[in-house]
C-alpha cells in the first residue's frame, strides 16, 4: 500500500514520538509500576504478527533470493547453479521485451490515470460535494480485475463489441483493440485506468479538501484566473499526495496481471506479455521456479530503484519551492 | 459590461464545462455496468444480429439459468452456451470465508501489535517496528512464489489455511496505520483506568479499541475489497473447486466458453453474479467506503 512514502513520513513521525516519549520518561518515575510487565505482554500481543512476518514475509524474501541462484522445479530439491539464472536473464529476449512492454504499460496507465484523476478531483471539488457522485466514480475499483477485464473484453470485441460499433457508426475503421500488436497494451492500460481512476481521484479529492479556502483569497483579490490559481497554489500544495499516488500506482502497474490474463493473455505474439505474466508462465507453465525467482528479484530491484528515484525527484523539487 | 458580470459569466461557462466533463466521466464509468446487465438479459443469436441495440435483444433469463446451472446441458448449448455453469452459492461461500477470515484476523492482530508499539514500554520495541516496516518495501511478486513453495511444503495447498495464513497474520501497513492513529489519541482516559487498577488488556479492549474503531473500519473495508477481488494468490494455491473463490470460478468459466463464438450473454451474466456482492456492499456502506478511501490517502 502506501509503501515508501509513508515509511519516510513515519520515520519522521516516529522520531517525534520517541522524543516525546523520552521527555515523558524523564518526568515520570522510571520504576513506575505502570510499566511493570509491559515487555511480557508486548511480546504476547505482537506474537501473531511476528510469526506472520517471519514465516510469510522475511523467510520467503530470503528464500526467493536463494532460489534465484538455483535450478528448482518444486518436485526435487533446489540445485545450486550460481549465476546461471542471471546469465540467462541477460540473454533472454522475451524478458527484455516483457520489461519493455511493462514499462510502456506503466507509463501509459500511470500518466493517463494521473491526468484524468487530478482533473476529476479538481472538478468534483469545484462543483459538487455529492457523496453519491463520488461513490459512482469508485464503482470500478470495487470489482475485481477479472470482472473488469471480462467486461471490456466483450465491449472491445472486434465484431460485436459496442466500442467498435460506435467507432464504425461515426465512419471510423474498426480497431482490433485486444488482438493487434499496436493496440494490445494501450487497450489494457485504458481498462486499468478505467478501474483505478476513481480510487485515485477520491484520494486526491480528500487532499484538496484539506487545503484551506483562505489560501485562495489573496489570489482572487489579485484577479488571478482559476486555472492559474490551480497551477500555482493547488498543485504545489497537493504535491505530497500526488507523489504518494504516483508511487502507489507505479508499483501496482508494474505488477499488473489479472486484466491481462483475462483479455489478451499476453498476446498477440508477446505484445502484451507483461513481466508478472511471464514470471507466472515460467513458474507454473514450465516449472522453472529458480529462473522465475530471478526475474521476481529483478522486478523488485527495478521497483526499489524507481521508488527511490521518485522520492529523490520529489525532494529536489520540494527544496526548490521552499 | 461590468467587470463582475464578465467574471460571473466566465465563471458559469467554466462550470458548464466542468459539469460536462464530470457527466462524461460518469457515463464512461457506469456504462460498462449497464452493458453487463443489458447483455446478460439478451439472447446470444439475437445479440449477433443486433449488437448495437441499447436494450436487451430477445429478452431472456436464459443466460442466468445457464450460469447458475439451472438449465440442462442441451438447453445451454442450444442457446450458445458451453454447458459449463458456476455453482454460485458454493463459490460465494468460499469468497466470503477467504475475504472475511483473512480481513478480520489481520486487522485484529494488527491492532494488538499497534497497541504494543504505541502504548507499552519494552526493550526492542523500536527495532521490531523498523523490522516490520521493511516489509512495506517488498512487493508481492517477490514473496508470492516462495510462499507458494512454503504452503505446498506445509501440505496446505487447496486449504483455506494455506490461502489465508500468508495474509491473515501480518500486515506492515495496517500496523503502521493503527500505531500512528493510536499515538495521536489522548491517553488520559487510559491512564485514569490504569490508575484505577484496570489491567492492560481491559484497557486495550475496553478503551483503546473502541476509540480506534474508525481506522479499524477503514482497514477492514479496504482489506475486504482487496481480498474479495484477489485472483493471483488463489490461482497459485488452489486447483480444487471446493476452496476456490468467485474470481477464479469466473476466469475458469470464461475459459470454458468457445473461443470462436463466445457465449457473451452467459459470460456477462456470470460477471454480474460475481460483481453483485461488491455492489451490495457498496449499497450498504457507500458513504463510509468513499470516506475510507479518502482517509487512507491523507493519513
From TrEMBL, chain A:
Positions of the UniProt region annotated as Disordered: 1-34
Pfam families: BPD_transp_1
Compartments where located: Cell membrane
Keywords, comma-separated and alphabetical: Cell membrane, Membrane, Sugar transport, Transmembrane, Transmembrane helix, Transport
Domain called ABC transmembrane type-1: residue spans: 95-310
Domain of life: Bacteria
Record flagged with keyword Hydrolase: no
Membrane topology field: Multi-pass membrane protein
Family the UniProt entry places it in: Belongs to the binding-protein-dependent transport system permease family.
Protein name: Multiple sugar transport system permease protein
Organism: Asanoa ishikariensis
TrEMBL record, chain B:
A single BP term in Gene Ontology: transmembrane transport
Transmembrane intervals: 17-37, 96-117, 129-150, 156-178, 203-228, 264-285
Domain ABC transmembrane type-1: 92-285
Domain of life: Bacteria
Gene Ontology cellular component terms for the protein in this record: plasma membrane
Topology versus the membrane: Multi-pass membrane protein
One of the Pfam families matching this protein, by short name: BPD_transp_1
Chief location category: membrane
Subcellular location: Cell membrane
Sorted UniProt keywords: Cell membrane, Membrane, Sugar transport, Transmembrane, Transmembrane helix, Transport
InterPro entries reported for this sequence: MetI-like, MetI-like_sf
Keyword Heme recorded: no
Family the entry assigns: Belongs to the binding-protein-dependent transport system permease family.
This protein's name: Multiple sugar transport system permease protein
Species, as recorded: Asanoa ishikariensis
Amino acid at each position: 500500500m502506501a509503501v515508501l512514502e509513508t515509511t519516510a513520513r513515519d520515520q519522521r513521525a516516529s522520531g517525534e514520538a520517541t522524543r516525546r516519549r523520552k521527555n515523558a520518561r524523564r518526568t515520570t518515575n522510571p520504576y513506575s509500576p505502570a510499566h511493570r510487565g509491559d515487555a511480557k505482554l508486548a511480546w504476547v500481543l505482537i506474537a501473531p504478527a511476528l510469526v506472520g512476518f517471519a514465516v510469510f514475509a522475511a523467510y520467503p524474501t530470503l528464500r526467493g533470493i536463494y532460489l534465484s541462484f538455483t535450478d528448482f522445479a518444486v518436485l526435487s530439491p533446489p540445485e545450486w547453479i550460481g549465476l546461471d539464472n542471471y546469465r540467462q536473464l541477460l540473454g533472454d529476449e522475451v524478458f527484455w521485451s516483457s520489461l519493455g512492454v511493462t514499462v510502456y504499460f506503466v507509463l501509459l496507465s500511470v500518466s493517463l490515470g494521473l491526468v484524468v484523476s487530478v482533473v476529476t478531483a479538481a472538478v468534483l471539488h469545484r462543483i459538487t460535494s455529492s457523496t453519491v457522485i463520488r461513490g459512482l466514480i469508485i464503482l470500478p475499483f470495487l470489482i475485481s480485475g477479472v470482472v473488469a477485464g471480462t467486461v471490456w473484453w466483450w465491449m472491445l470485441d472486434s465484431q460485436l463489441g459496442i466500442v467498435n460499433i460506435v467507432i464504425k457508426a461515426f465512419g471510423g475503421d474498426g480497431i482490433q483493440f485486444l488482438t493487434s500488436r499496436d493496440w494490445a497494451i494501450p487497450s489494457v492500460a485504458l481498462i486499468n485506468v478505467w478501474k483505478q481512476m476513481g480510487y485515485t481521484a477520491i484520494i486526491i479529492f480528500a487532499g484538496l479538501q484539506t487545503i484551506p479556502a483562505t489560501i485562495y483569497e489573496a489570489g482572487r483579490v489579485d484577479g488571478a484566473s482559476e486555472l492559474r490559481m490551480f497551477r500555482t497554489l493547488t498543485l504545489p500544495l497537493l504535491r505530497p499526495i500526488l507523489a504518494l499516488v504516483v508511487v502507489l500506482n507505479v508499483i501496482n502497474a508494474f505488477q499488473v496481471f489479472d486484466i491481462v490474463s483475462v483479455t489478451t493473455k499476453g498476446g498477440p505474439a508477446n505484445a502484451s506479455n507483461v513481466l508478472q505474466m511471464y514470471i507466472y508462465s515460467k513458474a507454473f507453465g514450465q516449472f522453472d521456479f529458480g529462473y522465475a525467482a530471478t526475474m521476481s528479484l529483478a522486478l523488485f530491484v527495478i521497483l526499489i530503484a524507481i521508488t527511490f528515484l521518485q522520492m529523490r525527484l520529489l525532494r529536489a523539487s520540494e527544496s526548490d519551492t521552499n | 459590461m461590468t467587470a463582475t458580470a464578465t467574471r460571473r459569466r466566465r465563471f458559469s461557462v467554466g462550470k458548464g464545462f466542468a459539469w460536462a466533463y464530470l457527466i462524461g466521466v460518469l457515463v464512461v464509468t457506469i456504462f460498462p455496468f449497464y452493458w453487463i446487465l443489458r447483455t446478460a438479459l439478451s439472447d446470444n443469436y439475437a445479440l449477433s444480429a443486433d449488437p448495437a441495440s441499447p436494450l436487451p435483444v430477445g429478452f431472456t433469463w436464459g443466460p442466468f439459468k445457464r450460469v447458475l446451472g439451472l438449465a440442462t446441458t442441451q438447453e445451454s448449448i442450444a442457446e450458445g452456451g458451453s454447458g459449463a455453469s458456476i455453482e454460485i452459492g458454493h463459490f460465494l461461500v468460499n469468497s466470503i470465508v477467504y475475504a472475511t477470515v483473512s480481513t478480520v484476523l489481520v486487522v485484529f492482530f494488527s491492532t494488538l501489535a499497534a497497541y504494543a508499539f504505541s502504548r507499552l514500554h519494552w526493550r526492542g520495541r523500536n527495532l521490531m517496528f523498523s523490522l516490520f516496516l521493511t516489509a512495506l518495501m517488498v512487493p508481492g511478486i517477490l514473496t508470492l512464489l516462495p510462499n507458494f513453495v512454503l504452503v505446498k511444503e506445509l501440505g496446505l495447498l487447496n486449504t483455506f489455511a494455506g490461502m489465508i495464513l500468508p495474509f491473515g497474520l501480518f500486515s506492515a501497513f495496517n500496523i503502521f496505520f493503527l500505531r500512528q492513529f493510536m499515538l495521536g489519541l489522548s491517553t488520559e482516559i487510559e491512564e485514569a483506568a490504569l490508575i484505577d487498577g484496570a489491567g492492560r488488556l481491559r484497557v486495550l479492549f475496553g478503551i483503546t479499541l473502541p476509540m480506534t474503531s474508525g481506522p479499524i473500519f477503514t482497514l477492514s473495508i479496504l482489506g475486504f475489497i482487496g481480498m474479495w477481488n484477489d485472483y493471483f494468490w488463489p490461482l497459485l494455491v488452489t486447483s480444487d473447486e471446493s476452496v476456490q473463490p468467485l474470481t477464479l470460478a469466473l476466469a475458469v468459466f470464461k475459459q470454458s466458453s468457445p473461443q470462436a463464438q463466445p457465449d457473451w450473454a452467459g459470460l456477462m451474466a456470470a460477471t454480474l453474479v460475481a460483481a453483485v456482492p461488491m455492489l451490495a456492499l457498496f449499497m450498504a456502506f457507500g458513504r463510509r467506503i468513499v470516506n475510507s478511501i479518502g482517509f487512507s490517502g491523507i493519513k
